[in-house]
Amino acid sequence: MQATDQREPYMELQEGSDSELWQSEVITSFYGNMADTAKTTHPQPAGRPEKGAEFGYVGIDAILEQMRRKAMKQGFELNIMVVGQSGLGKSTLINTLFKSKVSRRSVMPSDEERIPKTIEIKSVSHDIEEKGVRMKLTVIDTPGFGDQINNENCWQPIMKFINEQYEQYLQEEINISRKKRIPDSRVHCCIYFIPPTGHCLRPIDIEFMRHLSKVVNIVPVIAKADTLTLEERDFFKQKIREDLRVNEIEVYPQKEFDEDSEDRMINDKIREMIPFAVVGSDQEYQVNGKRLLGRKTRWGTVEVENTAHCEFAYLRDLLIRTHMQNLKDITSSIHYEVYRVRRLNENNTHPSDQPNGHSNGVPTHEVLSHEM
Ligand SMILES: Nc1nc2c(ncn2[C@@H]2O[C@H](COP(=O)(O)OP(=O)(O)OP(=O)(O)O)[C@@H](O)[C@H]2O)c(=O)[nH]1
Ligand SMILES: [Mg+2]
């Protein structure tokens, strides 16, 4: 299994002329601020108090502007993985995500080829830019499972891949001479595809999510939701939430990581909607004079981005618009942290001192054993 990593050109962009430009801008604005201070005028952050009400104003709020500028220069990275049984539309949903409002402009005109069956773990990256903010969205496609007679450990290759990304990050982090910015290939979110049976979660779904939810943020979705009626969909969603609760599977956003009552309120709404019932398509059709992503049937067109038709737009908004930073924070401060502590404790010495096997002395197959 191999992941196609297209990170390097992006990193070059970070460390090339752009960052020099940024440094010079920072220096200019720093001196600018100092000069301003001498003239008793302060930097101009948003929400600055009126003149006259300025006595004692230090300008701490200007840090927000500094952080914004830095973040704009660095850009954002998000790594999403899709997993689930074969044929549920994982590869199609990736194309949907890239072709939907997330990056429609950056996509080449569609080739009308059918999506082939996925046979290896593969990453696809897109650089998206909107209002001067750059984002590198990487989606990791995985081969469908469930084709084997014995599907007992079908979650293992996925777990191994996720842990390998943590391991790579850890190795980079503990290097004496490390990169200015560690390339982040850690999986920030794993979209789990549930087949639209309309009944309940299958043992294989429970097994998969039970293991994976301990190492990664899981967002479950009902695949091919156009095959269910609205009543079936609502019933199925409710049943899945109940099954998750009974089996103590914590999917994203996890209750225990809500930071305050505002978080809880927003996340409770999402938890009531989960799993999102999605429809995927990479074909565009003309509907009422507009070109829309959809699935054309004999009875009409299912519009993928229309929330009256399916919940793809809610999923996209959660991933990109409302919870991107939180997905990354939880990955880094919870999932990766658990992995890091466990690995460092295990070795009891500096991991790179270990001989043979894996780069840190642990044979590759043992990376698997770091699940809890
Ligand atoms: N009805 C319906 N069909 C879909 C949907 N999404 C994808 N399909 C169709 O399902 C078939 C399989 O789609 P893929 O995207 O290749 O499925 P996959 O999960 O990547 O399959 P593997 O690579 O084998 O794991 C294709 O014929 C798609 O056109 C959907 O939302 N609704
Ligand atoms: Mg596929």
UniProtKB/TrEMBL annotation:
Listed Pfam families: Septin
Biased composition (Polar residues): 346-362
Locations listed in the record: Cytoplasm, Cytoskeleton
GO biological process, one term: cell division
Domain of life of the source: Eukaryota
GO MF entries: GTP binding
Domain Septin-type G residues, every copy: 74-346
Keywords associated with the record: Cell cycle, Cell division, Cytoplasm, Cytoskeleton, GTP-binding, Nucleotide-binding
UniProt-listed InterPro entries: G_SEPTIN_dom, P-loop_NTPase, Septin, Septin3
Amino-acid biosynthesis as UniProt keyword: no
Main localization, broad class: cytoplasm
Span list, region Disordered: 346-372
GO cellular component, one term: cytoskeleton
Sequence similarity: Belongs to the TRAFAC class TrmE-Era-EngA-EngB-Septin-like GTPase superfamily. Septin GTPase family.
Listed name of the protein: Septin
